From TrEMBL:
<keyword id="KW-0256">Endoplasmic reticulum</keyword>
<dbReference type="GO" id="GO:0005789">
    <property type="term" value="C:endoplasmic reticulum membrane"/>
</dbReference>
<keyword id="KW-0732">Signal</keyword>
<dbReference type="GO" id="GO:0004671">
    <property type="term" value="F:protein C-terminal S-isoprenylcysteine carboxyl O-methyltransferase activity"/>
</dbReference>
<keyword id="KW-1133">Transmembrane helix</keyword>
<protein>
    <recommendedName>
        <fullName>Protein-S-isoprenylcysteine O-methyltransferase</fullName>
        <ecNumber>2.1.1.100</ecNumber>
    </recommendedName>
</protein>
<dbReference type="InterPro" id="IPR007269">
    <property type="entry name" value="ICMT_MeTrfase"/>
</dbReference>
<keyword id="KW-0808">Transferase</keyword>
<keyword id="KW-0489">Methyltransferase</keyword>
<keyword id="KW-0472">Membrane</keyword>
<keyword id="KW-0949">S-adenosyl-L-methionine</keyword>
<feature type="transmembrane region" description="Helical">
    <location>
        <begin position="161"/>
        <end position="180"/>
    </location>
</feature>
<feature type="signal peptide">
    <location>
        <begin position="1"/>
        <end position="24"/>
    </location>
</feature>
<feature type="transmembrane region" description="Helical">
    <location>
        <begin position="107"/>
        <end position="124"/>
    </location>
</feature>
<dbReference type="Pfam" id="PF04140">
    <property type="entry name" value="ICMT"/>
</dbReference>
<feature type="transmembrane region" description="Helical">
    <location>
        <begin position="51"/>
        <end position="78"/>
    </location>
</feature>
<dbReference type="GO" id="GO:0032259">
    <property type="term" value="P:methylation"/>
</dbReference>
Amino acid sequence: MTFANTPLLKVALLLAHAMSTYLGFTPPAVPPPPRDKLIRAPDFMRWNPRVQMAIFAMDRTVLCVLAVAEAVILLAHWSAPTNLLHRVVDAVLSSANVPLNSLPLRLTHACVVACLLAIGGGLLRRWCHRTLGRFFTLEVGIQDGHKLVTSGPYGIVRHPAYTGGLLMIAGNFMLLLSGGSFFTESGLRGTWIGKAVATTIVAHLTWVAVGSLYRTKTEDELMKSEFGESWEEWSQKAPYRIIPFLY
């Protein structure tokens, strides 16, 4: 069996990818009530929280559904023709003029890299969620009783949650647009719906990625003004914002 024809490995990677994407793109908690939060810096990325959360929910749902759907299709493809899963999936795909046996789904090196990036990024973000606890929010601000956390991933870089987010975005971009995937090989990517969905997701997550790089400066200024010497000591131990030895 060649590398490309290892369906169970790809199924495992896709399911882990979907779970990591879901957990990584899901906020750990609701924002703190206004009385417990002291906003000290403007945050252009939160110009409309409800719209932002709705778009994030769409991104998360589409990306996870595509990964899980491809995993199910792979299992059906490699099962016996008499198997119930095979027959059901084949019937659904055939109704859309995409017979199951005509799909050249395969495990590519790009798929492996994409899944590993997303899995690593999702796990890193969950680590950040657990390390910060209630202090992890999607808004730039200082809460009552806020503490400067410098342990765990925050002892490596100052903004590891953004590191995880960027890894997840890169992994999802690769998986969404690479060959050998259901989204590409089924022709869905070439339809107007596929183009609209892909363009929306890519545009939004690109904006988030660029915004995250800018946001680190704002957060550093806020934390420095709040914690002073403690922040200075931390910045000496963790001199990089997102990528060790680079940025």
